[in-house]
Amino acid sequence: MIISTDTTHLILLGLLLTMFIIQAWYWLGYYRRTAFAKVPEIAPGTPFPPLSVVICARNEAENLSRFLPDVLNQDYPSFEVVVVNDCSEDNSFDILGGLMTRYPHLKVSMIQKDPRFKHTKKLAMLIGIKAAKNDLLVFTDADCRPASPQWLRHVASAATGEKSDIVLGYGAYSEEKGLLNSYIRYETMFIAMQYFGMAMAGKPYMGVGRNLSYRRTFFFGQSGFGPHNHIISGDDDLFVNRTSTSENCSLMLAHDSFTLSVASKTIREWAKQKKRHLTAAAYYKSQDKLRLFIEPFSRVSWYGLLIAMLAMLISWPVVLFLALSRFVMRAVILKKAAAVFNERRLWFISLFFDIFAPFLTAFLYLTNKIKGKGRTSWK
Fold first, then answer.
1. pLDDT at residue 376 above 50?
2. Residue 92 within any structural domain of the chain
3. What's the CATH number where 129 sits?
4. Which residues on neighbouring strands pair with residue 249, listed in sequence order?
5. Which tens digit of pLDDT belongs to each residue from 343-352?
6. pTM for the whole structure
């Protein structure tokens, strides 16, 4: 059977239109919600219950010295900071000891290194959660600092509403020079557009451990980390993926509610971290994995069909109209989202990242599947 040229052109145009509709579904149905979200202020009379900040640290002496005081100096009436010093071999013990003399609300738990026993970050998290004396728990990393002294007030404000079991926040990366830093910040913002937008659509699926909160009673009521205890990563996103619903998640989008981290300096360091995070993706709920697969697949297909059809001058007026429509839709939403997340100087370079990112993520995911078995260390 020979298919005519006109039929081939119609099939290609139909495929391109399908990819456009899928892309529009994601950008208008999910990402737009984040970009145009109303950022609530802390309401007068908001209660600020006692809370516990839990931080797991392994060989983080320098970061603890730099960033932990910003957590300890939060403008909040009653809180403690629990640091789990997990098998550190640097001078973290001395740094924490010095800070404890200055900050009575700092509590430190220790995990001693034992070559016979390897564990994931979840054990350190569990020890920190059990050591915490308050029900409201806030999580961040040792290499993070709050964007403002009001961070904990925003967490408490979000946690005292109707949807108060889980609070999802934004964990940004500090802006520095270089293409790698731009890519890390772009990817972080894009992922946030996804998980905030889907949560707003009633489909929460992940959070980031750099800025996350839930209640101690909720954690144990959900059997803790449950079936994912053995997985090297996922102390944040897998727990949220398993336990979150449209009725129990609240969001923080005020700039003062963000945290800031130092981004990886080398591609090797970033790839190692990214692979560790991708380990958790295979354990997401099936519907979440499908949603997260369809968007990049349709994006790659869109660009492939677009380039091929323009090169062959197939229905080029229609193709150009669709290309311009997606460009404008993406540009408007991305610009608004960048303002929401307080990210700067990413718009132009993001045009390149939009094409490049799915291929890089797929490459890292596949190499992870081939070479990633047998790892248990989270640092």
1. no
2. yes
3. 3.90.550.10
4. 166
5. 988 988 888 9
6. 0.92
